[in-house]
Amino acid sequence: MKCLIADSIKLKGHPVAVILSDDKPEDGIQFKENIWGCVASMLSASALKGKTSFFDRKTYGCVGGGVGLGFGNTYEGFPIEYLLSTGKKESVDGTRRTRKLEEGEHYIKTPELAMKFVECLPMRNVKYEYVIFKPLELVKNEEIPESIIFFVNPDQLSALVVLANYGRKSNDNVTAPWGAACQSVLYSYEEGDKANPRAIIGYFDLAARKHVDKNTLSFTVPYKMFLEMEGNVKGSFLEMEEWQNLSSR
């Protein structure tokens, strides 16, 4: 599937399609069952190296990744409120003690606020077996993505924010919620259900930023919004001198 947006913003990597399916991909990389792994690293590999990756309910890598992919509340039974905040030295519900859990990540001030963060997440249990990250150019005609993810620099991000608002009657069509890097996927499911979905700026997760260049953020677009934005490229600012000069620097 060709992408006018990617060409117009001179994207160096690959737009990534998020696809839900009951069919296991013939090609691609997958974590081993019940082994820790970072979903965001797989997403980065799809965007930067053009690799397909996929996940199921036994191979989502970590509890935050399970939530981000839409496999339900995989935080249940895990002391996430302590990991995200001040830490907890005692083992909780039989969870194996780790240094990170004992110290806490201190991303949220208190365990109580960390639980509020979890409660605010738009939890979802997708009805499909697999969540697939596939470079957009490899998507087949019969495959309908849930969302498209771009990894962009500040200039490209600026252009995408403008394009997201270009054909709308309002100017707040982009949101930037905090969470794990892969949880932009979860937010895109929620936005995709809306009549006028918003795009999601993400990859603010400090633990995942090592997987991308320091000048890179993600921009996730529900698929119907992606089609809207694709249709607005022609005749837009992306063909004008201001953007042409900026994009060439």
Describe the structure in your own words:
This protein is an alpha+beta fold and 249 residues long. The chain has two domains: 4-62 and 126-247, no CATH class; 74-120, no CATH class. The chain is built from ten helices and seven strands. It has helices spanning 4-8, 39-49, 63-69, 80-83, 99-103, 111-120, 154-166, 183-192, 223-231, 241-247; strands spanning 16-21, 53-55, 130-135, 147-152, 174-175, 199-202, 217-222. A seven-stranded mixed β-sheet has the order 2-3-1-4-7-6-5, sandwiched between helices. Strand 5, helix 8 (183-192) and strand 6 form a beta-alpha-beta unit. The longest helix has 13 residues, at 154-166. It starts with a helix and ends with a helix. The mean pLDDT is 94.
What's the SSE blueprint?
Elements (H helix, E strand, L loop, with lengths): L3 H5 L7 E6 L17 H11 L3 E3 L7 H7 L10 H4 L15 H5 L7 H10 L9 E6 L11 E6 L1 H13 L7 E2 L7 H10 L6 E4 L14 E6 H9 L9 H7 L2
Parallel strand pairs: 5-6
Antiparallel strand pairs: 1-3, 1-4, 2-3, 4-7, 6-7
Helix pairs in contact: 3-8
Keywords:
10 helices, 7-stranded mixed beta sheet, alpha+beta, 249 residues, 7 strands
DSSP helix fraction: 25-40%
| First and last CA, distance | 28 Å
Supply Rg. Answer: 18 Å
Sheet of most strands: 7 strands, mixed
**What structural category characterises the helix and strand content?**
alpha+beta
- Number of continuous helical runs: 10
Tell me the total number of β-strands.
7
Along the chain, the helix and strand elements come as HEHEHHHHEEHEHEEHH
- Rough outline: globular
Order of strands in the sheet with most strands: 2-3-1-4-7-6-5
Overall number of domains: 2
Q: Which stretches are poorly predicted, pLDDT < 50 over at least 5 residues?
A: none
SS strand fraction: 5-15%
